[in-house]
């Protein structure tokens, strides 16, 4: 990967600011690839005790990357897609539970605050995608957009890389699945609605909780829960098949699964899915720090239940159980989810997507756009 040295300072978003002013992580966490680890130490000359309660807002650094490939391939039996695409590395939404945080270690950056403040934009992603779709022998199948980081995070408003990718997929008649926490998806209804009419797109909005205060702490720069529900309604009214993700389920933190499912169904969601909290690699430290800062009275209880879900460990990466957990608490979650979906009519089959409309030749006319 080659990243240009130019850095663009992006102003903080208009979202309400809390703790480290609108950031999910409460500290930098050393990457597992670093040779040295640093810990705070009070030498008696003043330190954390003398520090102000509010930390100054951190600016977001935007780095440009020239992508060599656009489509990634996934062979995990736990994931319902084989093809993925991510216009960005890192995510300004700052979701403290994001399983993708450890990937920032590969860049030499922290999975903590760096993940949400040092972002990489893949400048030529749409052009590279077009070239890959034009390759002889390419076989279309649903492509998941934003599989690692949210394709509609705040910087998309300015950079429009996701928009460019959708224009390529629209022109080629290629099916796509979008999962997002952002109301920014509504901007692209002019593309999504005609694609939906041909069975080319499904959108899932992730609604972790209806509690706005909790959402602000868990995912500080994502859209507010009520705003995401409005997006579900807008998509449904435009004829775009839309579902809801109630992920991740975090024991003793977001306990309103049934209420979220009901609100989503009333807004027009047709299907739902969930996953339990996963804490791979450095993420367990990021999340434990968040618990200590936000809900210290519940921290041990939360982690004990998380370990119950993962065979007595903070995380077990075994296929078949890593997404849903195991044991009695996983069974109870599954029963709650299944009963609520059955009652609300969210138990339909996976929303279908078509590959018969794929026409790569139509992309030749797009060459002048890049």
Overall description:
The structure is a single chain. The chain is built from eleven helices and eleven strands. It has helices at residues 113-117, 125-133, 156-159, 161-172, 189-197, 212-218, 225-237, 257-267, 283-294, 299-309, 328-344; strands spanning 3-10, 60-65, 72-73, 83-85, 88-89, 118-122, 143-145, 176-180, 201-206, 242-245, 272-273. The strands form two sheets. Strands 3-4-7-8-9-10-11 form a seven-stranded mixed sheet. Strands 1-2-6-5 form a four-stranded mixed sheet. α5 links the parallel β8 (176-180) and β9 (201-206). α8 (257-267) runs parallel beside α11. The longest helix is centred in the last third of the chain and has 17 residues, at 328-344. It starts with a strand and ends in a 26-residue tail after the last helix. Residues 5-18 and 47-54 have low confidence and may be disordered.
Oligomeric state of this protein:
single chain
Low-confidence stretches: 5-18, 47-54
Overall number of strands: 11
CATH class: Alpha Beta
- Rg for CA atoms: 21 Å
> Major sheet, described briefly?
7 strands, mixed
Q: What best-fitting shape do the alpha-carbon axes yield?
A: globular
Order of helices and strands: EEEEEHEHEHHEHEHHEHEHHH
CATH architecture: Alpha-Beta Horseshoe
**What is the arithmetic mean of pLDDT?**
88
Helix % is: 25-40%
Beta-strand content estimate: 5-15%
Summarize, please.
With 370 residues, this protein is α/β, with parallel strands linked by helices. 30% of the residues lie in helices and 12% in strands. The longest helix is centred in the last third of the chain and has 17 residues, at 328-344.
């Amino acid at each position: 990967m080659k990243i240009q040295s130019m850095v663009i300072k992006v102003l903080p978003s208009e979202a309400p600011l809390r703790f480290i002013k609108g950031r999910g992580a409460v500290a930098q966490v050393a990457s597992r690839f670093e040779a040295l680890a640093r810990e705070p130490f009070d030498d008696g000359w003043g330190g954390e005790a003398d520090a102000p309660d509010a930390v100054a807002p951190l600016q977001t650094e935007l780095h440009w990357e020239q992508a060599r490939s656009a489509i990634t391939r996934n062979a995990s039996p736990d994931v319902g897609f084989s093809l993925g695409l991510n216009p960005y590395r890192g995510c300004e939404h700052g979701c403290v539970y994001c399983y993708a945080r450890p990937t920032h270690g590969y860049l030499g950056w922290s999975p903590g605050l760096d993940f949400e403040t040092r972002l990489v934009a893949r400048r030529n992603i749409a052009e590279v995608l077009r070239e890959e779709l034009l390759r002889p022998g390419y076989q279309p199948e649903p492509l998941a957009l934003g599989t690692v980081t949210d394709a509609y995070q705040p910087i998309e408003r300015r950079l429009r890389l996701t928009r460019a990718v959708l224009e390529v997929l629209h022109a080629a008649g290629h099916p796509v699945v979008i999962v997002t926490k952002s109301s920014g998806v509504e901007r692209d209804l002019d593309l999504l609605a005609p694609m939906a009419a041909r069975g080319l797109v499904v959108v899932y909005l992730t609604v972790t909780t209806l509690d706005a205060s909790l959402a602000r702490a868990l995912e500080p720069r994502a859209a507010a829960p009520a705003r995401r529900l409005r997006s579900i309604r807008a998509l449904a009214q435009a004829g775009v098949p839309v579902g809801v993700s109630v992920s991740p389920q975090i024991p003793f933190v977001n306990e309103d699964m049934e209420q979220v499912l009901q609100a989503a169904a009333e807004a027009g969601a047709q299907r739902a899915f969930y996953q339990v909290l996963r804490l791979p690699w450095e993420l367990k430290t990021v999340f434990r720090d968040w618990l200590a800062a936000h809900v210290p009275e519940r921290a041990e209880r939360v982690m004990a239940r998380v370990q119950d879900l993962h065979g007595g460990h903070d995380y077990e990466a075994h296929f078949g159980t890593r997404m849903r957990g195991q044991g009695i608490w996983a069974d109870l979650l599954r029963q709650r989810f299944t009963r609520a979906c059955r009652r609300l009519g969210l138990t339909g089959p996976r929303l279908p997507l078509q590959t018969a409309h794929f026409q790569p030749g139509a992309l030749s006319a797009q060459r002048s756009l890049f």
